[in-house]
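Subject: Sanity check before I submit

Could someone independently write out the structure tokens for this chain? I want to compare against mine line by line before I put it in a report. The sequence has 129 residues.
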Amino acid sequence: MPIIRLITAIISLSGFFTLLSACYGPPERVEDTRDPSSDYYGMEYPFPFSPASTIEFEVSDSAYVTLEIFNVEGEKVHLLLDGLFSPGRHSAAWDASGQLSGVYFYKITEIGIPSGDTTVTTKKMILLK
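---
Independent answer below. Compare away.
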């Protein structure tokens, strides 16, 4: 009996996604135009981490950079960086010993100087205690 329920659930779920696709169309494809050989935007290690993590990023031109940490509810739990950075690779360490285990997101916002071009990168990180 359980296998029949599983098959029925899969068929129902498949129908749901077909209906969803018909209403909203196929998902849009998003191209990542960054050159993977030249920058490693928002690499975090270790993954998962306990209790501290290092987030690395690269700035191609002088830029104003903010690095914020958010919980799964979208609340900002820490502002890690906020300032002007010269071209090159940079890193920041986050001590999450005062936080609960779970999923967090970090957002790196880079505003190029003098171009004003803005790049925003958001990635997931997992804290295990």
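---
OP: Matches mine. For the report I'm noting this point. The longest helix spans residues 2-24.
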